[in-house]
Amino acid sequence: MASRFQAPRGTQDILPELQPYWSAVHAAIADVTRLYGFQRIDTPVFESAALFEKGSGDTTDIVEKEMYRFEDRGGDQLALTPEGTPAICRAYLEHGMASWPQPVRLFTTHQMFRYDRPQKGRYRQHTQFDCEVFGSTDPLVDAEVISLLWMLYQRLGLTGLQVRIASLDDPEPRKAYLERLRAYYEPFRDRLSEDSQRRLDRNALRLLDSKDERDFPYKEAAPKLVNELSPAGAAHHEAVLDALSAAGIPAVVDPYLVRGLDYYNRTVFEVVPVDDERAQGTIGGGGRYDFLLETLGGTPTPAIGFGTGIERIVLEMQRRGVSFERESVADVFIVHRGEGSGRVAFRIASELRRENVPAQVGDGTRSFKAQFRSADASGARFAVILGESELERGIGLVKDLRGGGEQQEIPLELVAETVRGQSLAR
RNA sequence: GCGGGCGUAGCGUAGCGGUUAACGCGUCUGGUUGUGGCCCAGAAGAUCGUGGGUUCAAAUCCCACCGUUCGCCCCA
Predict the structure, then answer these.
(1) At which of A291, A319, A347 does a domain end?
(2) Overall domain count for chain A
(3) Is residue A302 exposed (0-12), middle (13-18) or buried (19+ Cβ within 10 Å)?
(4) pLDDT per residue as tens digits for the range A325-335
(5) Which nucleotides of B are covered by protein (CB under 7 A)?
(6) Which of A302, A325, A296 is nearest to A48 (CA)?
(7) ipTM for the complex?
């Protein structure tokens, strides 16, 4: 290895060859958010650690073992954002957005930091596109954010995706359900996997999410929350499904769907590639969180949102074979050699760039052959040749790099204009 | 945090106890006083992830660490 330094574990460089994917994602985000009437917000990379402890839930893994927490020089307890929703909620409350026309639709793309064990598609720093809608309990809004997310994926050429959806009901009926679930599992406690025995005490809902074969028989026979919703919860759930179906979005109810954050109620959903066996397959997910803003000290405000990982989207695009043509870095490549040629080359390049023509100047210390190779590699359509004999005659040669490579003699003052004209005319 | 696989030039690979570590792509230079893409020739580029150990001898065997990858936990 040439370099002694490496990017920190779980972080990565996004090299130029990958940038077209990222640009496409950002462009699609700009499109769909505009189509759905979302406004952009940007929040800081770090926040008060307490925001996430309160917001995400202090027993969630994100807060308990994955948060980059630090004390700054003034003694404040801060954390690199592990999760976007609490940050946006904080901004909503801090800026009195309750007095904006409701509902308030916000989106952002920002960096997330989680100290967990890296794998493909799981990084310590990753980028998330988040959308949040505040101030509406309407199930159509649930369907709308899912529909926005779905459209994003469609526009990026991602096929073979599936929306999995469920409802976690509201806190009171869920509490009652969880008691029933524990009562159901308790007699088998000894026969469950170690993980599931722990879940029984800590987070019974997770029992349904077990991937351990020993738990499967009990899991299948277990009471499912989606089948036992309260009347209000059931009506909401049905309305969301109905709206999705009206919009032609293929959503399947997944009774085993569990999301890792404490604050969700009613609608929860994930988007997964149906043919991906990997555990990190989920590319996006979210849900309703009608009680979070209250938890954070605000007036009760219903809300729903999602996050989707851009790294995972890009991986999925590549897996799906979405590709981009290599962009040329210049339209015009100026080859020059000899005393004073650099000055002229630089002047012509500047003229071209002022006129919005991408132009590159060759390395005048290298041979013509080498500069032409660079010109070819740049993908430029035209080469401008400025050698000693041309400069003596006050002309430049304009060469078409496609086709037969014919060259025209053009007076130096007209080179930029001529090339620009031909470059536009192509 | 737990368990498994992998780690050889920029990239992809070969070599798997024994003289100067090989090949393809890429890069650079040349083949045309000063002209690209194809072709040809040559060059540069590797402390064989790092550090220990075993051995007369280690890229090859063993251990630890680092990185990556797969599964679990969890999540985007």
Answers:
(1) A319
(2) 2
(3) buried
(4) 877 888 999 99
(5) 1-3, 9-10, 27-32, 34-37, 46-47, 49-50, 66-76
(6) A296
(7) 0.90
